[in-house]
Fold Arsenite methyltransferase.
Amino acid sequence: MNNDELLKEVVRQKYSEIALQDKESNQASCCGSGCCSTEVYNIMSEDYTELGGYLADADLGLGCGLPTQFAKIKKGDTVIDLGSGAGNDCFVALAETGDTGKVIGIDFTPAMVNKARSNAEKLGFNNVEFRQGDIESMPVSDNVADVIVSNCVLNLVPNKNNVFKEIFRALKPGGHFSISDIVLVGNLPESLQKDAEMYAGCVSGAVQKEEYLNMIHANGFKNVLLQKEKSIHLPDDILINYLSEKELTDFRARKTGIFSITVYAEKPKEKECCGSDCCN
């Protein structure tokens, strides 16, 4: 098993455990090898309760933004949620796209897919579905989505560039995405970068903000817009599980920035044609 496969298996196992817990249990649980005041998976989460379509049973507190709030979803849109978890963002998106639209949630973890399907069945939704799959190779056709959203998921994927290629493939020409994710400004300590458990906690899997935005541009997207940005502070009682006291002191002194960002970008429209020949 290569390193990428190993990291994916760590994510699958960790999020399978989380799928079996409710939000309160996640927030009260321990992270890493020692107990801490707040679970790392919930430090970055935002309040969904004022958004239409919110379902408490689908909210596991795993996000780092509110991408559906910024996603410009219209009635009748087909929306894909990458890393759909228990269905939280899917149900919010469904409230926006309405009965004439469709929402597809994709998640890597079978336990999460099962939980999301159960939540959808309770609500009697017929135009939302959940598919198990790797977002580096989405189980969807080309040019199928008007909008793609994702909340704190790409940082869990070893090859983020592959995901942006897949997003481009799955979007209709003129479609767009709104993605919330974790990025860095400055380098993490080596022990954090290499720790697989912290990778599953969204931090050591993050890349530099500039690199992240460059990947979006490099994959052909246009009108890239930073919709929201906020600084994330990881408490010492979490970091001490991964860093020595000296490393922790040095980490704070360097003031490495860990940020939650929400990014919007569009897939260009196909060239309009003039007669039998396409215009430049």
